[in-house]
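Hi R.,

Here's the chain you asked about this morning:
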Amino acid sequence: MKAVHLGLAVALLVLCLSSVQLRASDDEIFYESFDVSFQGRWIVSEKDDYQGVWKHAKSEGHDDYGLLVSEKARKYAIVSELDEPASLKDGTVVLQFETRLQNGLECGGAYLKYLRPQDAGWKAKEFDNESPYSIMFGPDKCGATNKVHFIVKHKNPKTGEYGEHHLKNPPSVPADKLSHVYTAILESGNNVRILIDGSEKKKANFLSEDDFEPPIIPAKTIADPDDKKPEDWDERAKIPDPNAVKPDDWDEDAPMEIVDEEAEKPEGWLDDEPEEIDDPEATKPEDWDDEEDGEWEAPKIDNPNCETAPGCGEWKKPMKRNPEYKGKWHAPEIDNPNYKGIWKPRQIPNPSYFEIEKPDFDPVAAIGIEIWTMQDGILFDNILIAKDEKLATSYRDEKWKPKFEVEKEKQKAEEAAASGPDGLAEYQKKVFDVLYKIADISFLSQYKSKIIDVIEKGEKQPNLTIGIIVSIVVVIFTILLRLVFGGKKQQPAKREEKSTVAAESSSDQSSSGEKEGEEKEDGGAAAPPRRRSGPRRDN
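And here is the predicted structure, written out as C-alpha cells:
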C-alpha cells in the first residue's frame, strides 16, 4: 500500500513539474543558452564579406558558455530561425539577451536583428546587412556613436514602403568588460521600455513624434514640391539707403595708421648695437665644403648687450591709429519697404500620411547577429523572446546576475589593488557611472558624444578625474545659461583707446564705414618701441 502511495506521489510531482514547464514554454517563444554547441541551430552566413569565425566558448572566469566573436577587424553574420514566427502585434513581447565585451569595445556593434519571415526576400545562408528585419536592438559604439540601438521598421499602409525609425536619445553602452543584459519590453499600450541590467533607461511611445526619428506616423502636410518662389519675392529685410550721400569730409584714402610724431626714443637705446651677432662659440663643421655648401657663416644669437637695454639698432618712430581714418564709405541700411519675409513653399496634404491606433510590425521569424567590429572577445548569451516580463526577470536573475556579481567583485578587488589603500579607483568608478547617467539626460543630447569622449579619456587617465568633472560641470552650466538667456552671445569688448578714437572720428555718421573701420583696428594702437627679432641661420 505504501508503495502505491509513493508511486502516486511521484506521478503527481511529475505532473506538476510538467505543468510548470508547459506554462513556462507558453510564455517562452525562443530561448538560446549556448550550453551546447550552436552547430545545427545557428546558420553561419556564406556571404564572402563575412569572414569572422564564430566559436562556442566559455565566458572568461565562468563555466558558462556563449557565442564568441573570435577575431578582430572582421564582419560576422549568423542566424537562427524560430519554430514559428512571433507576432509583435498582440500583448507584451520581451526581447532580451546578454553580451559581454571581454576586450572592451572601441569600434563595433553587439546588437541583434529580429528578422522578418523569409518570404520578405532573404535566405539564412545568404544573411547579410540587407536582410529585412522588424527590430534591431543592442549596443553599438564607434567614434561619436555610443548608444544602445532600438530601431524598428514599419510598413506605411498608404505607400507599402518600409520606413526605418530610430529611438531618440537612446541610453549609452556600459563602459566596462562585464556581462550586461539588455531588455526591450514592447507593451500592448504602444510603449516600449529599454532596460539595462534590469534597470529602466528609456521609455517611449511608438506613435509619438517625440520618441522616434523619423516618426512612424508621418506629418499631415508637406511642402509642395512644385511650388516655386516668385521672381519678384524680396527676402531682404534691410537695404542700403538709396538717398544717402557720402559726406564731403569722408576720406576713403586716409591710411589706418600714421607715424606717431610725438614719440621719443627711449633713453639707453643702443643705436650702434645690432640685435643679433654671430655666435662666438660656433665653429665651422669639419665636413663643410665651401665649393659645394657655399661660404660658411656662423649662426646668429641674440646680442647680449641688448638684454638690459630698451632696444638695439636703428630706432624708428612707432605707428599709431589715424584719427582721420574712416575706411570705405557705405550707405547706411534702412528697412526694406518691399520685404516679404523668408519664402517657404505652401503646404499640401501628405499623400503618405496615415493614422493608426497601434503599430503594425511584421512578425519575427529569426534572430540574426550581423556586425562589423574591430574588437574580438564579444560574447553573446541567453537570448530570449518571451510573452511575459516576469519570465525575462527570472532568466535575468538566474542566468545573468550570479555571473555579474562575481565579475563585479573581481573588478572591485582589481581596482582596490591598483589604487592602494585610499580606494581612489572605486571612487572614480562611481564618479564615471554618474557622469554616464548625466550624458543620457535628454537636453544634453546635442553634446552627448563630446561628453562621453571626455569621460572615456578620463577613464584611461584616472588622475584627470577632478578635471573631467569640472569640464562637464562647465559644459552643463554653459548649456543652462544658453537655455535661460536664449543663446545670445555677448559682444566682445573693444579697447578703451580704440573706442574713444572711433567715437571721435565717426560721430553723427551712420554708415557701415564705421563698422569697417572698427574691424580693421586690430594692431592700430601705438605700442612702446621694442627690439625686433630677425631670422637666424641654423647650424
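One quick note: The chain has eight helices and 25 strands.

Cheers,
M.
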